[in-house]
Amino acid sequence: MKNHLRKKMMALRRAIPEPIRQEKSRKIREKLFSLSEWQRAQRIMSYVSFGSEVDTHQVIKQALAQGKRVAVPLCIPQVKGLMAVEIEDFPGDLVPGTMGILEPKPDRIYPVDPESLDLILVPGVAFDRSRHRLGYGAGYYDRFLSGLRRPKAIGLAFQEQVVERIAKEGHDRPVDLIITDEEVI
Q1: CA distance 11 to 27
Q2: Which of 25, 30, 152, 171 counts the most CB atoms within 10 A of its CB?
Q3: Cβ neighbours of 41 (radius 10 Å)
Q4: Where are the domains of the chain?
Q5: pLDDT on residue 109
């Protein structure tokens, strides 16, 4: 069931023409930057977008320009885990890593305690109105977010990625907010 939805939603997202994806990403950034949670946040973690995902490159640059401390994920494939790693220069501190996604350079790995973060921007293939998320299927973010109390998890998605219902499993943690190009859920 989830695999069928995942394939369908990834194809749908890839079908959005690049100029439209960029415009939708701009609208999502505007909504994010206007949130009081963003304005108050001193430490954020953001996924580094790739492929047809909501673009976070400008979000990371803006956060650094605003003097926020920024962490990005480092994948640890052996345990399907993520480590929050602080960066100071985007994209200078990064190189292609797991699945070709930009990750911190091996000599720039400064781990951050996830509980010290204010916000975590989370990718997803689909989200529902109960704020459940469908990821890529490996469980990296589910494991990373489980047990965290302090940081707010915010899913970024195109409106097309919002579905009626995602089957929930025991380890799934809903995000606190979903920001699309049309609304904040």
Answers
A1: 22
A2: 25
A3: 18
A4: 2-179
A5: 95
CATH code for 2-179? 3.40.50.10420
31: three-class secondary structure by DSSP: helix
pLDDT tens column, 102-157: 999 999 999 999 999 999 999 999 999 999 999 998 889 989 998 898 899 999 99
CA distance 53 to 10: 9
Alpha carbons 99 and 78: distance in angstroms, whole number:
14
Q: Are 151 and 119 in contact (CB under 8 A)?
A: yes
Q: Is the pTM of this model over 0.85?
A: yes
Are the C-beta atoms of 152 and 176 separated by less than 8 Å?
yes
* Nearest CA among 110, 73, 106 for reference residue 88: 110
Residue 64 to residues 84, 100, 184, Cα–Cα distance (Å): 16, 23, 24
Phi, psi of 61 (to 5 degrees): -60, -40
pLDDT at 65: 98
